[in-house]
Write a structure and sequence with these properties.
Blueprint (H helix, E strand, L loop, with lengths): L6 H4 L2 H51 L2 H24 L1 H27 L7 H28 L2
Keywords: Membrane, Transmembrane, Transmembrane helix
Protein name: Putative membrane protein
Amino acid sequence: MSDEPSSEEDADPLRLVQDQIAQHIKAFSSAKRFFRRMSLLQTVSTATLGAATTFLIGLNQIYKHGWLSSLSLGFAALATVSAAWTGWYGARESWVTYQGALNRLYALRSRIALESTLPDAPTGAKRATDYHTQCQTILDDVNGQWQQNRMSQP
C-alpha cells in the first residue's frame, strides 16, 4: 500500500476548499504582518522627522548657525515626503483590511471543522460549494476594500 493519497482523495471538493482557505490564511497572515510593520515604520519615521525638525529649529534659535537652519529645512522636507508616503501607501488601511479578512477566514475554517463533526452535517459537493462561495465572498470583499483604499488616497 502506498502512502500517496488516492485520486479519490485528491478530488474531494471539501478538502480542496479547506486547502484554499489554508493558503489564503497563510498569504493574508504574511501580508498583515508586512503592513503592520510598514504602518509602524511610517508612523515612527514621520514623527521622528517632525521632532528632529522642531529640535533643530530650537537649536538654531540658541546657537545661530546657518548649518542648523539648513539641516532643519532638510528634515522638514523629509518629514513632508514621509507624510506623503504614508498617505499614498496606506499601510494602516491594508493592515486592518487583511486582519479583518483573516478573522473571517478563521471563522469559516472553524465552522467547517465544527460542521464536519456533526452527525447530521450535509456532505458532498453542495457543502463544498457553499464554503467556497463564502471564501470567495471574503476575497471579493478584501479586493473591494483594497480598491476603495486606493481610490480614496490623494
